[in-house]
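job 3f2a | input accepted
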Amino acid sequence: QVQVVESGGGLVQAGGSLRLSCTAFGLTFENNNMGWFRQAPGKEREGISCIGWSGSIAYYTDSVRGRFTISRDNAKKTLYLQMNNLKPEDTAIYYCAPDCASKEGGIYSSFGSWGQGTQVTVSS
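job 3f2a | predicted structure (124 res):
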């Protein structure tokens, strides 16, 4: 069974930065696209970024493009999300998932075994 573990969240002031990490177990990490998703209070989970298996292609939604950078280290089987210039509207629980894809401006995954996520809180 595939399991993912996210870490690196925290409380930060607007304009600050955080770096999230994700480790996946039970899959061949280097063969999978990997993505970041988030769920804000009272809202549905949304995809925000997806990176191809080799790391050479990355997609972002408009809400984070230019501020967030997704990357991966296949040797360490770890996915990262560097978040800069954070805004209060970025406050959410952040999740990672394999098998992501970009379609019509959105980012999606059929993954069903979501982890606990990591909380990101941005104060104004």
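job 3f2a | The radius of gyration is 13 Å.
job 3f2a | closed
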